[in-house]
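agent> Task received from the user: take the single chain below, predict its 3D structure, and emit structure tokens. No templates, no multimer pairing.
agent> Plan: (1) validate residues, (2) run structure prediction, (3) serialize to tokens, (4) report one or two observations.
agent> Step 1 OK, no nonstandard residues flagged.
tool_call: predict_structure(input=
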Amino acid sequence: MKMQDHVKTVLKNDSQADLGCGTLVVNLFAGLAEVAGTRQIHLDWKSGTAEVLRIQLGQICPSIVKLLSLSAIAIEHEVVDDTMLVCEGAEVNVFPPVSGG
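)
tool_result: status=success, residues=101
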């Protein structure tokens, strides 16, 4: 099953999702998006920590588990630790590790 197909099964009705009500849109960047095969994942979400979010993303897309453990999660433009509460409708971005010289 392709990642895009699996993501659609996460929502009860992907085409009519109300992004502000019980849904979380997670933006993936760089190599993380490449491995996942998508730049966005839509989740049914009420509330939970960033750690719970990592676990749920890994369950949806096992191919990104290793990168997720090394990635930074930003909520509303601020990098947070795994204990931070992620509320429904929040802007969530996940950045894999970067290197440069």
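agent> Step 4: summary for the user.
The chain has one domain: 3-9+20-95.
agent> Done.
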